[in-house]
Write a structure and sequence with these properties.
single chain, Tetracycline Repressor, domain 2, mainly alpha, about 220 residues
Length: about 220
């Protein structure tokens, strides 16, 4: 089913008004919780709006009034998740980073990713799941947000390959995709219940990325 058929978007509804401090979802924590539960478990096409309304106690009329439709609810929810995710990366992004220390920076990115995962695994799963949606859907939804930090990571990887920090035998897009997949699945690689042990394992994952697994 095409994106426009799944989400019959209202012609005159201002979806951009759902972003930022005016996001109405900030006033409805039960609705946010129910939306995260449903959208993190299913694709947007399969997610049940009725199930979300049932869990949150909101009427369909109120939801349409505040969010326009299912797509509007999704955008409002993603706005909160994006801001939450970026809060772990703002300290890193705001610094003057040493572009000659790629693996040092990657270590800090991995630590921030792990902290985000530990804070709310549902949000992490949802931020990964959105990348599995159709290209048409992602293009429409991402119009409302600043570029994802993965875009900056891909550009940075191309730079460090040119500077000799990464073996140029490998295509930059392949390296970037590999690192994206590792970061997106960090929760599957780092499973120890102890936070310190998780960080230790995350650093071991980075060592594998940097040095490989071949015997010396």
């Amino acid at each position: 089913m095409a994106f426009r058929e799944v989400f019959r978007m209202k012609k005159h509804f201002d979806y951009s008004a759902l972003i930022g401090e005016s996001n109405p979802l900030l006033r409805y924590p039960e609705l946010l919780d129910a939306a995260i539960d449903e959208f993190s478990a299913k694709s947007c096409e399969d997610a049940s709006l009725n199930e979300i309304l049932k869990k949150s106690g909101m009427s369909k009329g109120s939801l349409y009034h505040h969010f326009g439709d299912k797509f509007g609810l999704y955008v409002a929810m993603m706005d909160i998740i994006v801001q939450k995710k970026l809060s772990y990366f703002y300290p890193l992004l705001s610094e003057e980073l040493d572009t000659d220390d790629f693996f040092g920076i990657l270590k800090r990115v991995m630590k921030a990713t792990l902290e985000f995962v530990l804070a709310d695994e549902r949000m992490h799963h949802l931020s990964v799941r959105v990348m599995e949606e159709s290209a048409e859907f992602r293009k429409r939804a991402f119009e409302f947000f600043v570029p994802d930090y993965f875009q900056a990571l891909r550009a940075y990887i191309r730079y460090v390959m040119e500077s000799g920090q990464i073996d140029t035998r490998y295509p930059p897009e392949l390296v970037a995709k590999f690192i994206e997949i590792v970061l997106a699945n960090l929760d599957k690689l780092v499973t120890d219940p102890e936070p310190d042990k998780r960080l230790e394992t995350a650093n071991q994952v980075l060592d594998i990325i940097q040095h490989g697994i071949a015997g010396k």
